[in-house]
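Q: For a teaching handout, I want to show students what a protein-ligand complex looks like in C-alpha cell form. Below are the inputs, and the small molecule is phosphoric acid mono(formamide)ester. Please produce the holo structure.
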Amino acid sequence: VDHLLGIKYLNEADVQLIFETADHFKEVINRPIKKVPSLRDITIANLFFENSTRTKLSFELAEKRLSADVINFSAAQSSVKKGETLIDTVNNILSMKVDMVVMRHPNPGAGVFLSKHIKASIVNAGDGAHEHPTQALLDSYSIREKLGDVAGKNVVIVGDILHSRVALSNIFALKLQGANVKVCGPMTLIPKYIDSLGVEVETNLRKALEWCDVANMLRVQNERMDISYFPSTREYTQQFGVNKTLLDSLDKEIVIMHPGPINRGVEITSDVADSKQAIILNQVENGVAIRMAVIYLLASKIKN
Ligand code: CP
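A: Here is the structure, written as C-alpha cells, with phosphoric acid mono(formamide)ester included.
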C-alpha cells in the first residue's frame, strides 16, 4: 500500500508530479463547476486526534471536489475517550470499507506506526513535531507560483523550529528542490540536529531577512513546550517578530509566508500579515489543489 507519511520518503520527481497534478486541479477548482468524478469509487476517513482548521477543512474539500465519499472523525467526540486504542479505532473504521486514511495525531511517528498495522493508504496530516508533508508541498507550490521556481531561492524559516513539523517538512521539501535554506530563532528553539539537515542557523533576524527571498514565519507552539524553553513573548517579538518598519527598511521586497494559525502581534504584525507582500491566504487556497493531487495520485494506485 502506498502512503504519504513524510517528505523524507519522496524524491524530486514525486514532488514535481504532485505539482503538475495540482496545476490541473487548480484550474478545475476555478471553473464554475469545481468538481470532477475521478474518485466516485473511493471512501476516505479523516481522522483528527489533534485540533485543526485549515488542514481538516482543506482535506475534506479536496476529497469532495474529487467526488470521494468522506467520513470525519474527531478524537475529542469519539470512543478514544473511553480508552479505545489507535489500531482498534482505525480497524473498526476500515471495516466499513474505507480505502484511505488522512490522519493528524499528536505523537511523532503515528502514521508510520499505523502503516505497519493496517491495510489502507495513509496520508499524514501532521504527526506531533515530526512532519506535515502536505503543508510543505503547498508552501513550495506557493513559492513556485509567486517566484516561478523554488530552485536557487533563499528561504528562511523563522521561529520555533524545535517544535515545528512545518519546519522539518519544509526543510526536506526545499532542499529536495534545490533551494538554499536557513533557520532563524532563539537557540532554545533550534533543534540540536539542525546541522545534520544541511541548514544554516542565523540568530539575527535582520541579517536573515536581508539574505532571503522568502521568509516563512512560524507560530511559537506554546502547547508543545515548557515555559523555560522560551524567551518571554515580549522578548521573542522584539528579536524575532516581523513588522512593517523592519520590512520597509530592507532594500528589497521579500515574500512573507505563514502556515497559520497566526499569533498576531507575536511572530508577525497585522500590517505585515494582511499586506500584499504576504501570500498566507494563497497558501491556504493552494492547499486544496495540492491535497487533491496527493489523494488522486494515491487513489490511482489503490484502483490499479
Ligand atoms: N497549517 C495548519 O496545519 O493549520 P491547522 O492546524 O489549522 O490545520
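A: Two things your students might notice: The domain at 133-281 is CATH 3.40.50.1370 (Rossmann fold). Residues 280-303 form the longest helix (24 residues).
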